[in-house]
Amino acid sequence: MKNILIVKLSSIGDVIHALPVSHAIKETYPEAHLTWVVEPPAYDIVAMADCVDEIIVFHKKEFRSLGGFLSHIGPFRKKIQERTYDVVLDLQGLFKSAAIAYLAKAPKNQKFGMWNMREGSQLISQPVRGAHVHDHVIERYLDTARAIGCDVQDVRLPLSVPAKEQDLTRRIVAQAGADMKNPYVVLVVGASWPTKCWPDKHFAALGDWLYEQKIIPVLVGSGPVESQKAAAIAAQMEIPPINLVGSLNFKQLAYLFQQAAAVVGGDTGPTHLSVGLKAPTIMMMGPTLPRRTGPYGQMDNLLVADRSCKECMKRACPLGHDCLDIITPAQVEEKLLTILRNGTKQSSATTAK
Hints:
alpha/beta; Rossmann fold; six-stranded parallel sheet; 2 domains
């Protein structure tokens, strides 16, 4: 195959889970030119992928009005149709991705997607119901690669951080008052759903415990809500943590994870990035499905809220629970002690199961 197109637009965590498909493709078709269509929020993630040769950015906001659609559809169609593709993989499975797959020049019988395609996308691309239909979402994505002849030898997130970004990360951390040569644990303070967030008081207690272990707690996140959470966490700690919320791009965040003793967070994009990079990662889950989006390759580091209503898939709890409050700092500390005693990172590749 000479040209392959992947359409996976958002969200951050989903794009991270789909990236092993690019590695699987290059393993089997090393000479193929791989193009990826993505929305701006996930651009930096795909830009780090060694296996992606070209990125086309889809600015969804530009298409929301009739005038915007008429102004931008021509240039976008021209860009998509610069190449004729041997295969198109729609890994989004929604109307917007189906429209892009429809525009792409490729044989109709060589357009594929995941088994649970929606919003008419299944009329454009063939849903692939593979052997891993009920397994982790990474394996479900990889089933589409298997459908085009890829022999998946290992599951790998093919990301590399440029040396410039590594140096910038060290400088940013130093300006915040820490040295990356000293042991630190990264705390991912927020998530897109309230039910995916660990309480501020628990993060504060964990941060104090880390200082007692002579380990620096480092807070990361983005946006005003997570900035407020970081401030609330710091206010409850005896010694303020290193607060990098809003200070790092994804390349810098990736490097911070790579050098960390461990990472702690909920079911959210940055935590999945840490898992994909094989940094030792403790993930806390409540409303979402561990078998689908748990820490792939690190399930021993998973903590699930012990509630009868877990896996409800609700953004806000109708019962009024603070979902992850039931996961205690002591439980996280126990997991961290095991990781810190081992003192080793996960292997660079996780064998497909």
